[in-house]
Write a structure and sequence with these properties.
Elements lengths: L1 E11 L7 E6 L20 E4 L12 H5 L5 E3 L5 E3 L9 H5 L5 E4 L1 E4 H8 L3 H7 L2 E6 L6 H13 L3 E6 L5 H8 L4 E5 L5 H8 L4 H13 L5 E7 L7 H12 L6 E6 L5 H6 L14 H11 L3
Helix pairs in contact: 3-5, 5-6, 6-8, 9-11
Length: 298
C-alpha cells in the first residue's frame, strides 16, 4: 500500500509528546480560509512555482520546451508564468528546471519508505518520549494507508499521534484511533452555519465523531484544539460556546487555543492562488490570554 505524502517535517515540538516527526498526508474535505497547508487540500500532487528561483526565459527556457500542455509561457518580467487552467500537474517541467523553481508537491510513498524517514530520528524519540504524528491535509482522507502506517510504527515501538479535523467516516476514525497514543482534534466553531461559511462544511459530523471518540476511547488522551481566527471565532462568546462543548464531553479533555498565523501565505503564491486572509493580523498575546481565561485553559 502506498500513500500520497506532501511533507515529512523533522524535529517538531508542538504536535505530541517529546520530539516528533510529522508526516503530512494529502487530501482534505475542508477548505479553511486560513489553511496553512493549501498544498495538502487536493487529492493529487500540486505544481508549485517560486518566481524568486526562476533563472528567466532568456537564460533558460527548458520548462517551456518540456511542457506538452502549453501551460508555461514567458511573462513581462522575464520570468515564466503558469496557466493553471492548462496545467495538468504532470511534473515534466519540474524535471527540466535546473534551479528548482518548479516543484511537484506530493509523492507516492510506501509504509516502509515513510518509516525509514521517521526512524532517522529514533534516538531523539527514545530520549524525549517523542514519535510520529500524522497530519495533513486530513490523514483520514487516506484512512487505509494511515492505519497501516500507524500499525507498522507501533510494531517498531514508535509512539503515535493523530491530528484530525474529524470530518470523516466514524468507522475509519474508530479503526485508526486503535493505533494511536494521542489525538489532537480541531473544533473551530460551535456555530454550524458560520463553520460552513468559513470552512465549506458544517460542524455536525465533526462534533458527532468527537463525542463518539470520547465515549469509545475513554482513556485515550484527546486534546481539542481551536485556532483563533480574527473575525471568525475570536469573541469571548465564540470561545465560551466551544468550551461548553468540550466540558460536556465524557472524560477529562484538554482544550487548547492556538493563535492565527499567516505563515502559509507564501504557499498560496507558489500555487498560483489568492490568499483569502491577506493582511489579517494575528491576535495579540493579551487577547489570547483573555480568551484562554474564558475557555478555562490558561
Amino acid at each position: 500500500m502506498r500513500g500520497l505524502i506532501f511533507n515529512i517535517q523533522k524535529f517538531s515540538l508542538h504536535d505530541g509528546s517529546g520530539i516528533r516527526t510529522l508526516v503530512f498526508l494529502q487530501g482534505c474535505p475542508l477548505a479553511c480560509s486560513w489553511c496553512s497547508n493549501p498544498e495538502g487540500q487536493a487529492r493529487s500532487p500540486q505544481l508549485a512555482f517560486d518566481v524568486n528561483k526562476c533563472i528567466g526565459v532568456i537564460e533558460c527556457d527548458r520548462c517551456l520546451r518540456a511542457c506538452a500542455a502549453g501551460a508555461i509561457a514567458d511573462s513581462e518580467d522575464g520570468k515564466v508564468q503558469i496557466d493553471r487552467k492548462l496545467c495538468n500537474d504532470c511534473g515534466d517541467c519540474v524535471d527540466a528546471c535546473p534551479s528548482t523553481a518548479l516543484e511537484l508537491l506530493g509523492r507516492q510513498m510506501s509504509v516502509d519508505e515513510v518509516l525509514a524517514a521517521v526512524e532517522e530520528d529514533s534516538s531523539f524519540y527514545a530520549r524525549s518520549g517523542g514519535g510520529l504524528t500524522l497530519s495533513g491535509g486530513e490523514p483520514l482522507a487516506q484512512a487505509g494507508f494511515a492505519v497501516e502506517l500507524l500499525k507498522a510504527a507501533r510494531s517498531r515501538g514508535i509512539d503515535t499521534a493523530l491530528e484530525t479535523s474529524g470530518h470523516c467516516r466514524w468507522e475509519d476514525l474508530q479503526n485508526l484511533c486503535r493505533h494511536v497514543d494521542q489525538v489532537f482534534y480541531d473544533v473551530k466553531s460551535a456555530d454550524s452555519a458560520r463553520h460552513e461559511e468559513h470552512v465549506k462544511v458544517g460542524n455536525g459530523l465533526i462534533l458527532r465523531n468527537l463525542r463518539k471518540l470520547c465515549e469509545y476511547f475513554p482513556d485515550l488522551p484527546i486534546v481539542v484544539r481551536t485556532p483563533i481566527i480574527p473575525g471568525f471565532n475570536d469573541s469571548p462568546e465564540d470561545v465560551a460556546a466551544i468550551a461548553r462543548l468540550v466540558s460536556d464531553l465524557p472524560g477529562s479533555r484538554r482544550h487548547e487555543l492556538l493563535p492565527y498565523h499567516g505563515f502559509g501565505e507564501p504557499k498560496y503564491r507558489r500555487l498560483g492562488k489568492e490568499y483569502p486572509l491577506r493582511d489579517l493580523e494575528p491576535p495579540s498575546e493579551q487577547e489570547m490570554a483573555r480568551l484562554r481565561e474564558v475557555a478555562g485553559s490558561g
